[in-house]
Design a protein that fits this description.
Blueprint: E1 2-8, H1 16-22, H2 27-35, E2 49-56, E3 65-71, E4 82-88, E5 98-105, E6 108-116, E7 122-128, H3 129-139, H4 150-169, E8 171-173, E9 179-187, E10 200-212, H5 215-224, E11 238-239
Antiparallel strand pairs: 1-3, 1-4, 2-3, 5-10, 5-11, 6-7, 8-10, 9-10
Helix pairs in contact: 1-2, 3-4
Length: 240
């Protein structure tokens, strides 16, 4: 595997499509933008993980969008608005290792939808863990002034989700050293979806310290990612 740092310099860009894709927190657009670095691969048959840094950076004070990309093949561009550096990625992991980590994730919980598929089996639906908790509190009849403050809710539910994911991915986070923040809801409308369907997802930013409890599982999670919505900049676990 390869890990790359790709910096997109909007001030140098002459492509209107790429400028639109890079604008704001457009997760779908970022995916489109990074696909231009893998022109020889067919979408749907090739995948990569990526993580966009929340700030802007660039050489010589230039503003730019910085992405980390984990892929089997080297991302490449001869266009002047891209700066790309790549190195091999084959971390040696042992149980008991301690890492600082950063993760953008789409934390969801599966609940019965009340619908059945063509085979008559119950169909589950994914719910944003933050909105699901808020819905439960409202259904419990809590007065507005007794609802859990959003900041506490984000920390509690986000951490609960990550602790459960860690168990199946070979690691455990240290709650006292892990911060959950930057809750955002994203609505892509009907872009890239079939008629009558829209795409919505929420993201959280995690940063903290974790312990490796199963080296094999953890190594796999570094390559495969953690949680859903990997095509939209979620799931890449950055460790150091």
């Amino acid at each position: 595997m390869l890990i790359s740092q790709a910096i997109f310099h909007p001030n140098s860009c002459e492509s209107l499509d790429q400028l639109r894709w890079a604008a704001g927190d457009n997760l779908y657009g970022h995916h489109q933008l990074l696909w231009t670095l893998f022109p020889g691969f067919e979408r749907g048959k090739y995948s990569f993980l990526f993580h966009k840094l929340t700030g802007t950076s660039g050489p010589n004070g230039q503003r730019g969008l910085t992405f980390f990309i984990l892929s089997k093949d080297r991302p490449m561009s001869d266009l002047p608005w891209w700066s790309i550096s790549t190195k091999s990625y084959a971390p040696k992991i042992e149980a008991g290792d301690v890492f600082q980590f950063r993760l953008r994730a789409n934390p969801t919980v599966s609940k019965p939808s009340g619908r059945k598929n063509k085979k008559g089996k119950d169909v589950s639906a994914r719910h944003d863990v933050i909105m699901h908790r808020k819905k439960i509190e409202k259904l419990d009849g809590r007065p507005v002034d007794e609802l859990t403050p959003m900041g506490i809710l984000i920390q509690e539910e986000g951490l609960k989700w990550l602790l459960s994911r860690g168990t199946r991915n070979g690691f455990e986070v240290i709650p006292s050293q892990t911060v959950v923040q930057a809750y955002q809801q994203h609505d892509f409308g009907k872009t890239g979806r079939s008629a009558g369907m829209s795409l919505r997802l929420s993201t959280l930013e995690f940063e903290g310290v974790l312990n490796v409890i199963d080296a094999d599982l953890f190594s796999k999670s570094l390559i495969a990612g953690v949680g859903p919505a990997k095509g939209f900049g979620c799931g890449l676990l950055l460790v150091k």
